[in-house]
Amino acid sequence: MELDAFGKRLRAAREKSGKSAEEIAQSVGISVPAYYDLETFDDELTTSLPIQDVALLFKLLGIQPANFFHTAPVPDPMTVDVFVEKIVEYLKTRQMSVEIFEDLVGWDIEPLLNEPEKILSYDIDALREISSEVGIEWLSLLQAISIASKPDLK
User: Fold this and answer.
1) Which of 2, 59, 106, 139 is the most buried (most CB within 10 A)?
2) Ramachandran region, residue 62 (left: φ > 0; alpha: ψ -120 to 50; beta: rest)
């Protein structure tokens, strides 16, 4: 799956929503220039915002994560607890240490294993890489987080 044109899709969704970049930036809790970076540079969305903020952004703009990332069918939402359980099951099945897994995926997951909600502070690239190794659909978790996000337009 090629991940591209995120900025253009984000801008189109914002324009369709009738919301200004300033409104969205304020609601997500980022600066206006940081928001414009999301619309300008395709990798900004997957590397610069925590998953929780991406989910809120999608909720504010009425974006379905699976549609945004061109995935069909839409995966069933997965809770953070189930996500972490699947990682633990993967480690046990393969008799793999956390340290080896971290080296394999390039992300520190120990805090996540102790407090599943910590996944909300990871970016989408981390979620994709961890999920890919474990063999689960990363959009399932993003979908659930997006559904649970509470937009607050001021």
Assistant:
1) 139
2) left
